[in-house]
Amino acid sequence: MRVGLLTGGGDVPGLNAAIRAVVKRGEGEFGHSIVGFRNGWRGVVDGLSVPLSRQHIRNVLPLGGTLLGTARFHPHSKDGGLDAVLSTLEAERIEALICIGGDGTLHAAQKVAEAGVRIVAIPKTIDNDVWGTDASIGFDTAVTIATEAIDRIHTTAESHDRVMIVEVMGRDAGWIATTSGIAGGAEIVLAPEAPFDIDRIVKFLKHRHRAHASFSIVVVAEGAVPAPGTAMHYETQRGQFGEVVAGAIGERLKAEIESRTGFDTRVTVLGHVQRGGTPTAQDRILGSRFGVAAIDAITSGQSNVMTALRGERVELVPLEEVAGKVKRVPDDLLAVARALA
Could you give the residue numbers annotated as active site? Predict the structure, then answer.
């Protein structure tokens, strides 16, 4: 069988582990030919294919990024895009396609599946907001990096009696902010799921600095917003692909806190540092498990499904049930972050 493989959307640590698993299992166990497409869906549209064999995936397990390259591109949003996808797959004699990506890539995968292509998807995103799976490839590494950054910022915050704002990724869901904030001991965690009141934040900071501490750590997701009707007006700044403009909410919070409290306030925007570099052991394992599950699903005749971590098990869930949905941080986890202020 000839099986196509692509990685779409933003890069995350652990993608190469998934690619490696698909190739090793697919070629070594089942005798499949694995064909990679460069730069996500754009590579399928443009016919940019490369053969993938065991020699191509040597020593890639600890590497960040993706050896196939990636791009933010959705074929159904371009005139003739879906037709071009179908033409390329026919020319390459691709019998099934494995798509590794986040919400945008998976939404595109569902559109291609509806056109008659056999699809198995693998969820990846540091935001951890793919519906239907407990974890996505890249999330564990991002939280580890963010937590280490918060640990380091603590020492300089205390030394200089500052309020330190750490802005992390999280466009529509605050998984990184909430979990790294808890792990790093932040005083305030702001997530898209719980719009904030700047007056309450200022009151808390003034009380804390008067009562028992001269510094504070605020962790904010890039997609966090103030609650309607509160004293701060702010609309999320977005780029051409719907991505949040890094630093916008952090800088606005800095200005508000400084003007209302007089406290020396600084912003650190972690940005793409969270998604680069060596994947953690957990992301290497998860990528490997998802890769094996995906090629096994293809071989057994499964179609239009996504690999998902459910507890300790990797299961298959219908792609149509997860595409276009956002998994948000549950209230009980947000409550833990608030309780530890």
Answer: 127
Q: How far is CA 1 from the centre of its chain?
A: 31
Quick: pLDDT tens for 195-211. Answer: 999 999 999 999 998 88
Q: Does the annotation list 273 as a binding residue?
A: yes
337 lies in a domain? Answer: no
Find all residues with CB under 8 Å of 288, minimum gap 6, and list them. Answer: 17, 18, 20, 21
| 288-308 pLDDT, tens digit each | 999 999 999 999 999 999 999
How much of the chain exceeds pLDDT 90, in percent? 82
The answer to whether the annotation marks 105 as part of a ligand binding site is yes
Which domain, by its residues, includes 29?
2-138+279-322
pTM of the model: 0.94
Exposure string over 39-60, b if 16+ CB within 10 A, otherwise e: bbbbbbbeeebeebeeebbeeb
- Judge whether 171 is annotated as a binding position: yes
CA 78 to chain centre: 24
Q: Give domain status of residue 289, yes or no.
A: yes
> Number of structural domains, the chain?
2
11 is in an annotated binding site: no
